[in-house]
């Protein structure tokens, strides 16, 4: 879908801040499914958490991302920005289990051909109750995504390390030529 734009990349790289800025500008933004799952599982005492059962967590994220994609299809919005995507979770599950989820899910559910990746940004990286992994895991995740998206035919645009308003301008200007 040419109007489904992915903002992904390194954990703690400023994605959510960028998406909040895009939302303030009137764009439709879909929150990261992983954070939503962590919040729900924590609230209900569930075990599908990355630090308890990563495979169950990733399967829940895939289900949520599929629902997000289907819900966005019903939107008339000219652009829908996703905080991560189905591809992120499918790539992680495939790396963990060897299940061929990336190609199967990634080809069936398309997004805009240009994907924006937030690079590692140690100066702003923070752990919190929902992001318990360290910078090493975030770097491995970024490397996995740098490989996964091009394999599925997407072009990566790495976000510059600048303020949220400038990053939003960068994304919107890049989309005009992508």
TrEMBL record:
Gene3D superfamilies: P-loop containing nucleotide triphosphate hydrolases. Residues 5-167 form the NadR/Ttd14 AAA domain. InterPro entries: NadR/Ttd14_AAA_dom, P-loop_NTPase. It comes from the Bacteria. It holds the Pfam family AAA_28. This is Putative ATPase. It comes from Paracandidimonas soli. The lineage of its organism: Bacteria, Pseudomonadati, Pseudomonadota, Betaproteobacteria, Burkholderiales.
């Amino acid at each position: 879908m040419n109007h489904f734009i992915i903002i992904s990349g390194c954990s703690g790289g400023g994605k959510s801040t960028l998406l909040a800025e895009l939302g303030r500008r009137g764009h439709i933004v879909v929150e990261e499914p992983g954070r939503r799952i962590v919040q729900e599982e924590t609230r209900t005492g569930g075990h599908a958490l990355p630090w308890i059962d990563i495979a169950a967590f990733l399967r829940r994220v895939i289900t949520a991302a599929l629902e997000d994609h289907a819900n966005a299809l019903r939107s008339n919005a000219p652009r829908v920005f996703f905080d991560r995507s189905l591809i992120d979770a499918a790539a992680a599950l495939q790396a963990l289990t060897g299940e061929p989820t990336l190609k199967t899910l990634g080809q069936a559910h398309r997004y805009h051909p240009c994907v924006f990746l937030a690079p590692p940004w140690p100066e702003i990286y923070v752990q919190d109750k929902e992001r318990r992994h360290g910078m090493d895991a975030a770097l491995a995740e970024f490397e996995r995504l740098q490989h996964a998206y091009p394999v599925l035919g997407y072009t990566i645009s790495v976000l510059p390390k600048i303020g949220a308003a400038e990053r939003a301008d960068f994304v919107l200007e890049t989309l005009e030529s992508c």
